[in-house]
Amino acid sequence: MSYSLEGKVALVTGASRGLGRADALALARAGADVVITDILLESGENEEVAARFGPMSQVMQSTGVVYTEKTAQEIQEMGRRSMAIQMDVTNRKQVAEVFQKVKEEMGGIHILVNNAGTLDHVSRIEHQNDEFWERDLKVNLTGAYNTTKEVWPIMKEQQGGRIINMASVAGTLGGFGQASYSATKAGIIGFTKSMALEGAKYNINVNAIVPGVINTEAFQMTNPDMRERMIERTAFKKPGEPEDIANAICFLASDHARYLTGIELNVSGGIELFTF
């Protein structure tokens, strides 16, 4: 099956590394022009920005695990149009400016992948950091709201579009010590279903990907014992790769998925099954 996305413009949030970067490259290989957005750019003043968003951003910034502009360059080398733009999904004014710029310079936005997220807040409820709780709500849930609200009139004008939201098995199963992350990812699923209902009359399909244990840079930074415990929970006894998520996103963005909306697609290696 060919997931041809020729003539489509995709915008991926949080695409400097990990799942977002893999998604962007896969969409380009399928034929789409792709806009890469992230709070961090290789050429940007990143220290202050990274500090505002917490330990994970600071580690990625300080170790150079930021490939926003590199990803755009790789896509251009495929013969596709691409641009790298610094964007904070919690800043509504900035989101509006970026989406208007993309519409004017790229001709529209046909695919939105809401991938930007935080996942470094892990502690039991009595030790949950109130500021990080608010941050997680703003980035993981309100961020998707901000970008969806901004792309909505563009997709209505185009008489169609695809919005793909990144949830998590933490949102469907819960996660010990992950109250804020799990709550926001569960919220993403509810948001997805509501937007699917509202978007149907405009030919806007809205779906959610539910990743399980995926072998990203962030996953490699977790405690080795914890990594092994999570891997053992999967039916395959191995982590997925970012490309597994990217392939699912290309499917949902393609005409092969034209009658799918409001679904939560598990790409989880069976971690939600009763494994023992």
UniProtKB/TrEMBL annotation:
InterPro entries in the record: NAD(P)-bd_dom_sf, Sc_DH/Rdtase_CS, SDR_fam
GO terms (molecular function) for this protein are: oxidoreductase activity, acting on the CH-OH group of donors, NAD or NADP as acceptor
Alphabetized SUPFAM superfamilies for the sequence: NAD(P)-binding Rossmann-fold domains
Biological process terms in GO annotation: bile acid metabolic process
Per the record's keyword annotation, is Oxidoreductase included, yes or no?
yes
Query: Keyword annotations for this protein?
Result: Oxidoreductase
Q: Which Pfam families match?
A: adh_short, adh_short_C2
Name the domain of life this protein comes from: Bacteria
Query: What PANTHER family does the database record attribute to this sequence?
Result: 3-OXOACYL-[ACYL-CARRIER-PROTEIN] REDUCTASE (PTHR42760:SF133), SHORT-CHAIN DEHYDROGENASES/REDUCTASES FAMILY MEMBER (PTHR42760)
| Sequence similarity | Belongs to the short-chain dehydrogenases/reductases (SDR) family.
User: Protein name, please?
Assistant: 3-oxoacyl-[acyl-carrier protein] reductase
What is the scientific name of the source organism? Melghirimyces thermohalophilus
